[in-house]
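Data availability (excerpt). All sequences and predicted token strings are deposited with the supplementary files. A representative entry, Nucleoside 2-deoxyribosyltransferase, is shown inline so that the format can be inspected without opening the archive.
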Amino acid sequence: MQTGLQSRIYLAGPFFSDGQNERLATVKAVLDQNPTVGYVFEPAKHQQDAIVAEFGNGSLVEAMKTPQWQNATYHADIQAINQADAVVAMLDFDVEGGNPRPDEGTMFEIGYAIANHKPVIIVQFTQDDEPLNLMLAQAYTAFFWGQADIANNLSQYDFINLPKKLVAKPVI
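Structure token line:
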């Protein structure tokens, strides 16, 4: 679903802590600089405000516990992935807490995108020796690893032609 010479991007990643939100904001800012990106869907910015007001009494934390919010959010995110040309997924989860494993929701979004033939571009700020799961290693189109790679190269990545960009990371 290309929109002229620019792509629609779904930005996947956890947004439950200040650190996660800062990293997502960095990726969004870099994508906004990319001339081949026309639109970035950020799930964190689409939190079902009417449902939060009605079922969460204005509290997102309370609304998130309700089946109404969960159902609406799931379907909105699936629709946004379906409308995207590519998914950019941040693997960093609870880095500040010492948990290098990716967020389960982000892994679902990656799997759904792959199953629907959407290219997945992975970003990971932490440059650790944590191995990459072989399923991710075989599925991604491009991988930007480390703050400098994200800042310097994601803004120039060609989201129209989507060239392969591999990373030398251990695989298990």
